[in-house]
Design goal:
Elements: H1 8-31, E1 36-41, E2 48-49, E3 53-54, H2 56-70, E4 76-81, H3 86-95
Parallel strand pairs: 1-4
Antiparallel strand pairs: 2-3
Helix pairs in contact: 1-2
């Protein structure tokens, strides 16, 4: 965890992202026409914020984990993330 507070605009972005991924991942899985899903998170931030609030890479990782738990036959997923600050990517890796 970091001591960095989750900014309000990032919290709003995460709510939208999670709602979108819930619907998108389920729909694309149930369609049966997709073999692999690629997700990319540019400028991922530190991964986890103060107060154990997840950032986008952790939120996405959790959604992918939940997808494969609920649908064992879900398409293969590839998730890439990066940030200009190497601390952020290393920190996010720790939580994933």
């Amino acid at each position: 965890m970091t001591n960095i507070p989750l900014p309000n605009h990032s919290e709003a972005k995460l709510r939208l992202l999670e709602a979108y991924l819930d619907r998108y991942l389920r729909a694309i899985t149930l369609s049966g026409r997709t073999e692999e899903i690629f997700l990319v998170d540019l400028f991922c931030g530190p991964g986890m914020y103060a107060g154990e609030k997840p950032g986008s890479p952790v939120a996405i990782g959790r959604k992918l984990s939940a997808l494969h738990a609920e649908y064992p036959g879900a398409p293969k997923t590839t998730f890439l993330f990066n940030d200009a600050d190497e601390f952020n990517t290393k920190n996010a890796h720790r939580y994933l």
